[in-house]
Amino acid sequence: MFFNCINPDRELYKYVLFRILAYAGLRIGEAMALEWEDIDFKKRLISVNKTVSLGVHGKLIVNPPKTRASRRDVPVDSETINWLKRWRIEQPDYVYGYVRLSTHHQLLFTTKTGNRFRVDKPRMWLSTIIRNNNLAPVISLHKFRKSYISNLLIAGVAVSTVQKMVGHTDPRITLQIYARVHQEQEVEAAEKLAKYLKTGKK
Q: Which one of 60, 63, 149, 190 is at 20 to 30 Å from 72 when CA atoms are compared?
């Protein structure tokens, strides 16, 4: 429902950014720091090796990830790669005076003047999309990441693999999410059993 509320023909950069959050589980600072050289189209990998944060007086600061575990290569699905390819082609038409001298250090997401977005800008986009389309529940940017982790666990991906993919230093963080997902599945299983015993239908 959320992605149906973004028109990729008009706001492709927003569509691609939120898709990276939902389908690769990156933190918003990691996503906003991405450069095209961080995308391996052949291997379908996103290299997470830096993050953007808001410093003193609103200055944007680019730093390496805080922990060794946060520095990682995240595999992504072919559809996400196709959206990235499309954005790479269309980006020069979006940025005024865009000149591609090389792919090195060219940001994936910039303003129309080619500058970095403030890291709080996507939060404003998210709030506007939710409000204008009456979406519920109201979620934060971080919920995209939690949803990504939960869905990996529901799909049966090993906790150790999920921990590596999302860059958790402490496995207890991943295990806490796993415990919550497991509990929700147990409740759902109980409801399904009750329905089956009552109606004989799955």
A: 60
Q: Which of 109, 105, 106, 116 is nearest to 87 (CA)?
A: 109
The backbone torsions φ and ψ at residue 133, rounded to the nearest 5 degrees and listed phi first, read -115, 10
φ, ψ dihedrals at 48, nearest 5°: -100, 110
Q: Kindly report, residue by residue over 86-121, the tens digit of the pLDDT.
A: 999 999 888 876 655 445 678 999 988 888 888 889
Q: Report DSSP state, residue 101.
A: S
Inter-residue contact 22 to 14 (CB < 8 Å):
no
Helix (H) or strand (E) holding 153: helix 141-154
Query: Taking the complete model, does pTM exceed 0.90, yes or no?
Result: no
What's CA 54's distance to the chain center, in Å? 19
Taking Cα atoms as reference points, which of 165, 185, 160 lies closest to residue 23?
165
CA distance 5 to 95: 23
Dump pLDDT digits (tens) for 23-53.
999 999 999 999 999 999 999 999 999 999 8
